[in-house]
Automatic annotation (TrEMBL):
Species in which this protein is naturally found: Heyndrickxia ginsengihumi
Protein's name according to its UniProt entry: DUF1574 domain-containing protein
Superkingdom of the source species: Bacteria
């Protein structure tokens, strides 16, 4: 869950990951970071098995829907495959403010102050509040954990049926790797660790399809891939839920990734 601590990295680092991001916007974020700092030499990307078939802009989930309208579109002015009107969605609140309300509540002043507060709060902050040390897994018995993990895994098992998205993402990532190789930027991909409950619920075809997409890229481009899906370095206490690390797990992950970085 956006889980690396920058201070653990051996070089000056910035964590630009956000929740529910897909490959398209992940790569867009990295390229944007490069426009601000062309001296970047290393890039670490979390790449779950289901990532090839995931397109945030086509999601029907309201949570992910808002990731386009309230996060990615306002930042990048790019709606990708989103079929709606992200500008209209983000203006709903403003258009509901009548002239009378603006007069009564000094709307412009309030809005300006509110934006200033948000900017100050986000000036050098993380996407999630800290600390994140609780574990959802520890709150339930094994039967409940298996049920909840199965529900979560099933939401990911379906992604490879979206063949057009898989093909688009393969092309996007091949272009990205070629570009990064030309820049001399070293790419480290990792399949994130998961709890045993989630691991036992994943469709094996998802894993084989993941590597079927990855192998041609490994043959043509330089990058490093480490698979932590079956790692025994993590315990249930290291997870915020069934497939996201909490702070304890994030620190363990950083230690592993630092060891894998190439200099």
């Amino acid at each position: 869950m956006c889980g690396l601590f920058e201070e653990q990295m051996p070089l000056p680092a910035r964590n630009v990951a956000i929740d529910a991001q897909d490959l398209y916007y992940t790569l867009k974020t990295i390229r944007t970071a490069l426009t601000y700092n062309p001296n970047i030499t290393h890039c670490i990307i979390s790449f779950a098995y289901y990532f090839w078939g995931y397109d945030l802009s086509l999601s029907t989930s309201i949570y992910q829907y808002k990731r386009v309208t309230e996060v990615n579109y306002p930042v990048f002015k790019d709606k990708h495959n989103f079929s709606g009107d992200p500008i209209g969605e983000t203006q709903t609140f403003l258009t509901s403010i009548t002239s009378l309300k603006k007069s009564l509540f000094s709307f412009e002043t309030w809005a300006g102050q509110y934006i200033d507060i948000i900017k100050n709060n986000l000036a050098d902050s993380h996407y999630f509040p800290y600390p994140r040390e609780d574990s959802e897994v520890l709150k339930h018995d094994d039967v409940t954990n298996r049920e909840k993990a199965l529900e979560r895994a099933e939401s990911h098992n379906k992604f490879f049926k979206y063949t057009s998205t898989v093909k688009e993402n393969q092309k996007l990532f091949a272009d990205f790797l070629k570009e990064m190789n030309n820049y001399g930027i070293k790419i480290l991909l990792y399949v994130p660790p998961v709890t045993e409950f989630y691991r036992n619920s994943i469709n094996p075809c998802l894993i084989s399809d993941f590597y079927a997409c990855m192998e041609p890229l490994k043959a043509n481009y330089h990058f490093k891939l480490i698979d932590l899906f079956n790692s025994d370095a993590f315990e249930n206490t290291d997870f915020a839920d069934y497939d996201h690390l909490n702070d304890l797990g994030a620190r363990k992950l950083a230690e592993i990734l630092v060891h894998e970085l190439e200099f």
